[in-house]
Amino acid sequence: MTATYRPAEPIWCAGCGHFGVEAALIAALADLDVPKEETLVLAGIGCSGTIQNNMGTYGYHALHGRVLPTATGSWEANPELTVIAAGGDGDGYAIGMGHLIHTFRRNPSITYIVMNNGIYGLTKGQNSPTRQGTAALDAALLGLSVLETTFIARGFTRAPDQLRRLTAAALTHARQGHGFAFLEVLSPCVTYNDTYPRWETEHIDLDADDTYDPTDRSSAFTRVVALEAEYRIPVGLIYHDPSAEPGSFPNPASADIDPVRNAEAYSGIIDRYRI
Ligand SMILES: Cc1ncc(C[n+]2csc(CCOP(=O)(O)OP(=O)(O)O)c2C)c(N)n1
Ligand code: SF4
Ligand SMILES: [Mg+2]
């Protein structure tokens, strides 16, 4: 079953975390019996973005930073599709950040997997917004601050079973129509920024903490802020609203366009500027 998702061999460096993200995605799709002909994987630009080349599903390689609007539009056009957007921290949190915030707000039923390695791997190691020691951005915390968010999780390629579980949970949330499933994965770049040793000690598994309630946004926010202050990185299911409804927002492509009314309005505007 899993082999059918993978027609091409990845071109990543040996040991790259992105292998683990792809393995978890393939396994989770198989666990959920998602037919490959009903699945669309879209990706941004970066080493991470090549993930869509390796899947036996439909695929689309979006412009740099533009994977989320492309994925949202795909889902709007065909809500029956399992739509998965994927990309790197540079793609999603630098050039693509505006789209992330608005996708949090809009809550479309798609899954977004961000492979966070703290750098731009493809262009040889420049700092990304999540580079530690540079006022690193926490996209999970950002997501918690947007009240329309419905699913926020973080995995680590060092914990493949948990990552597979989180990926399946994210896919299920979106496929059941509850809205936007955001999954960040700590996915080290072993060539330009090997964070495996550092993240091994800094990550903390919220799934293993019985006192943590991922359905309580306020306490999740407080806990994540407190962990950040201690230089710890929360991993696991961070926030989940299992009864959420997807956002409804006007689709410009299907807007009711009335050419006569538009022509009259246009003439009126032009008349106002006539001398
Ligand atoms: C418009 C545009 N600006 C800049 C680039 C150069 N560029 C290619 S990939 C990339 C960042 C990749 O980093 P990330 O998204 O974190 O992926 P990674 O390679 O780390 O997996 C950049 C800046 C580009 N391709 N297009
Ligand atoms: S450069 Fe880094 S991110 Fe890119 S494939 Fe190699 S290890 Fe992975
Ligand atoms: Mg990166």
- What does the main sheet amount to? 8 strands, mixed
From the N-terminal CA to the C-terminal CA, the straight-line distance is: 71 Å
Number of strands: 10
Under the CATH scheme, which class? Alpha Beta
Based on Cα principal axes, name the global outline: globular
Could you spell the SSE succession in H and E letters? HEEHEHHEEEHEHEHEHEH
Overview in brief:
By secondary structure, the protein is an alpha/beta fold. The chain has helices at residues 18-31, 67-77, 89-95, 97-106, 139-145, 160-175, 196-202, 217-229, 259-272; strands spanning 39-43, 58-61, 82-88, 111-116, 119-120, 126-127, 151-156, 181-186, 203-205, 233-240.
Describe this protein's structure.
This protein has a single domain (2-247), classed as Rossmann fold, CATH 3.40.50.970. The protein is built from nine helices and ten strands. It has helices at residues 18-31, 67-77, 89-95, 97-106, 139-145, 160-175, 196-202, 217-229, 259-272; strands at residues 39-43, 58-61, 82-88, 111-116, 119-120, 126-127, 151-156, 181-186, 203-205, 233-240. The chain is globular. The structure holds thiamine diphosphate (TPP), iron/sulfur cluster (SF4) and magnesium ion (MG). Residues 12-13, 16, 18, 47, 117, 121-122, 189-192 line the site of iron/sulfur cluster.
Core attributes:
binds magnesium ion; two-stranded antiparallel sheet; globular; alpha/beta; Rossmann fold; 275 residues; eight-stranded mixed sheet; binds thiamine diphosphate; binds iron/sulfur cluster; single chain
